[in-house]
Amino acid sequence: MSTLEIRDLHVSVETKEGAKPILRGVDLTISAGQTHAIMGPNGSGKSTLAYSLAGHPKYQITGGTVLLDGEDVLAMTVDERARAGMFLAMQYPVEVPGVTVSNFLRTAKTALDGQAPALRHWVKDVKTAMEQLRMDPAFADRNVNEGFSGGEKKRHEILQMELLAPKIAILDETDSGLDVDALRIVSEGINRVRESGDVGVMLITHYTRILRYVQPDFVHVFVDGRIAEEGGPELAEQLEAEGYDRFLAKA
Amino acid sequence: MTTDTSMPAGTPAGTPAGLTTDHSRASADGAHSHGLRPSTVPESSRAERRTSFDPADFPVPTGREEEWRFSPLDRLNPLFDATNEKLAAGGVLVTVVNPPEVTVEIVGREDRRLGTVGRPGDRTAATAWSSFAEATVVTVPPQAVASAATSIRIEGVTSDASAAHLLIHARELSEAVVVLDHVGAATLAETVEIRVEDGAHLTVVSIQDWDTGSVHASAHRTVVGRDATLKHVVVTLGGDVVRITPDAEFSGEGGNIESLGLYFADANQHQEHRLFIDHNVPQCRSRVTYKGALQGESARTVWVGDVLIQAHAEGTDTYELNRNLVLTDGARADSVPNLEIETGEIEGAGHASATGRFDDEQLFYLMARGIHEVDARRLVVRGFFAELVQQIGVPEVEERLLAGIERELETSMKLIEAAS
Ligand SMILES: Nc1ncnc2c1ncn2[C@@H]1O[C@H](COP(=O)(O)OP(=O)(O)OP(=O)(O)O)[C@@H](O)[C@H]1O
Ligand SMILES: [Mg+2]
To answer: Is residue A225 lining ligand 1, measured as CB closer than 6 Å?
Structure first.
């Protein structure tokens, strides 16, 4: 059972005018088996939190700690974090020309396990996961994210989550840009991984519609670089009805 | 920097004649300016450029000439033969392994088949022509289908300036693959004449994998006959200065040229590829794809792609593309596509040119899935070249290339480790 502990995390980005603080003291603990929804206005720093946890070089950690089962995540390189069990489904997945999806997935799996997966099982696992996500088998031979539609990119992110079986999955607006059917298919994918009980999920979203499929245990309101309020699923409904005004005034 | 220009099929007549574009000096930082040296001699049309077999018609380059403006003249100087004493002959050892269907001869310079394809277009092409003593002639007889690739190993055995000459003659309806492999240490001015007769299918691969210290200027001159196809592949990996100038023209309708290039420049290497495709005959097709990667201090590549569609060359179909991947600081790629169109009655004409830095977002994406940095870089660089390598279609060359890329990547990881 894994636990990710974020304590008083401060993060800045480099701008022409100097370092600009974005995260101002984030505290959050996510354990395996739990799903935490993060909701908050545009620009409040949700993606910054996600990328900072994954180790994107653009973000400078200026304070705080992040521990995964007691290990210092912030001291790890990007790939070490992934191998420690962190996974980030990106809001804007990157195109990698000339690298096929199947090659990419196999390389990632090999890196995570420290050895190549048994070919026959692996091929079957990929095929099954793609079928469940209603991805055309042709995607396996396409280059990573190249020419994928917005929704196809999101399915591809969840495909990776299913195949790579992380301990902590951070899903940054995986629901954005999905049509109603795709939202259900992608949610089912997330739920399949959740059912294992071995994963803790941070689900960043603007909408409660995904939360009807993927029920959160906790909802956090993210405003101006920190968590402004925490509650249960009912908080999401309240936010959708009332918006963020109440919190913005306070901040 | 990315530029993309294309003219769709059926571009109406009345397209301004002599339309040219110039995108010079695309460097890693995206800087983009027109013209490098202020005193560059302006040139109106590629068709007007001088050609001659006599070196005296080409003064020793000063750097102001359009065709020399990017080149390291000091390092190329031994090949200019400034004292007109001619370069030495026999600076390279030529070894040919050919299948039984293909004939190979060593002939004297008086052989009448030599010097019949195109004409030298610059000083080194003229000194190469005036200096060689013997030439290697590879002939694929009419209708012969070569059962294996013909391999021509050109090994440098001295660093004294020397000259070499080759003629590859694919007769009517023949099919063959010829691979030139340049290795060892040399200072070489070379001519490769390629004649593809009507209906023939010829693949010529020229690999430049010289030792450090080598300087190589090579003029490839090509003529492609009626319904003939030439696949012309240039691979430049090793050597201090390599400057290849492939010129191509057609001698019958239905000719097809597929020109592929791959280069990988390390610190202090200068790799220059200057192509000229002269659509001098109607209904011919050309496709040019060159891709290069650069790494290390003062790694330098130049790609110039001149395509001329002459006034009577209706039905021409041409597209050229150059992409450069800059892996480290201190490297610079210049990319200059140049399309001159003298008729509107064409099938299509276009070009694209882009020079980009290694994309750290791609690296992040791959590493965020647990892939080690070395492997992630390898995936991205291999991916950059993947499609091009597949298009070559000669398995032994593809393997050689992948191994070459692999070797370069090891250098690149050392550079990165040293920097961090
Ligand atoms: N290079 C930069 N220069 C200035 N500001 C930046 C830079 N990079 C990020 N920011 C700012 O950081 C803030 C947080 O951005 P972030 O992407 O984390 O927001 P978000 O909560 O994910 O928003 P959204 O809901 O729109 O996805 C934004 O105000 C953004 O403009
Ligand atoms: Mg965001």
So the answer is: no
Q: Is pLDDT of B17 > 60? A: no
From the list A94, A103, A107, the residue facing B362 with the nearest CB is A94
Model-level pTM?
0.83
Is the model more confident about B159 or about B16? B159
Place of tokens 């080690």: B372
Minimal Cβ distance to A96: which of B362, B373, B387: B362
Is residue B418 within 8 Å of residue B299, measured between CB atoms?
no
In whole angstroms, what is the distance from residue B251 CA to residue B171 CA?
13
Query: How many A/B residue pairs have CB atoms within 8 Å?
Result: 82
**Which of helix, strand or coil describes residue B348?**
strand
ipTM rounded to 2 decimals: 0.96
Q: What are phi and psi of A231, to 5 degrees?
A: -165, -165
Residue B323 counted as domain residue: yes
Nearest Cα residue in chain B from A80 = B370
How many Å apart are CA A93 and CA A200, to the nearest integer? 21
Range of the domain at B91: 26-358
- Give the model's pLDDT for residue A251: 52
Please tell me if residue A77 touches chain B, with a CB cutoff of 8 Å: yes
Residue B388's alpha-carbon distances to B348, B356, B375, in angstroms, are: 22, 17, 20
Between residues 369 and 388 of chain B, which touch chain A (CB distance below 8 Å)?
A: 369-373, 375-376, 379-380, 382-387
| Dihedral sign computed on CA atoms, order A85, A89, A95, A98 | positive
Report CB contact under 8 Å: A94, B364: yes
B322 to each of A168, B341, B352, B355, how far by Cα in Å? 42, 19, 6, 8
| Ligand 2 mean position, distance from CA A90 (Å) | 9
How far is Cα B325 from Cα B384, in angstroms, rounded to an integer?
Answer: 8
- A221 vs B: CB within 8 A: no
For testing contact with chain B, the best of A56, A73, A78, A163 (most B CBs within 10 A): A78
Give kind and range of the element (H or E) at residue A235.
helix A233-242
What percent of chain A has pLDDT above 90?
Answer: 92
Give the mutation target among A9, A10, A13 for probing the ligand 1 site: most ligand atoms within 8 A of CB.
Answer: A13
Q: Do B371 and A164 touch (CB under 8 A)?
A: no
What does the block give as tokens for B124? 């080194």
Residue B21 lies in a domain: no
Q: Residue A78: what pLDDT?
A: 98
Question: What mean pLDDT comes out for the span A116-122?
Answer: 94
What is the atom index within ligand 1 of the atom nearest the CA of A14?
Answer: 1
Give the per-residue pLDDT at B20: 34
| Residue B72 included in any domain | yes
* CA angle at B311 for the pair B306 and B312, rounded to the nearest 5°: 115
Question: Looking at the domain assignment, is residue B364 inside a domain?
Answer: no
- Between chains, do A111 and B375 touch, taking CB under 8 Å as contact? yes
**In chain B, how many domains are there?**
1
**A54 contacts in B (CB within 8 Å)?**
364, 368
Indicate whether B177 pLDDT > 70. Answer: yes
Helix (H, G, I), strand (E, B) or coil at B284: coil
A113 to chain B: nearest residue by CA?
B370
Share the mean pLDDT of chain B: 89
Range scoring the smallest mean pLDDT among B3-7, B276-280, B281-285, B400-404: B3-7
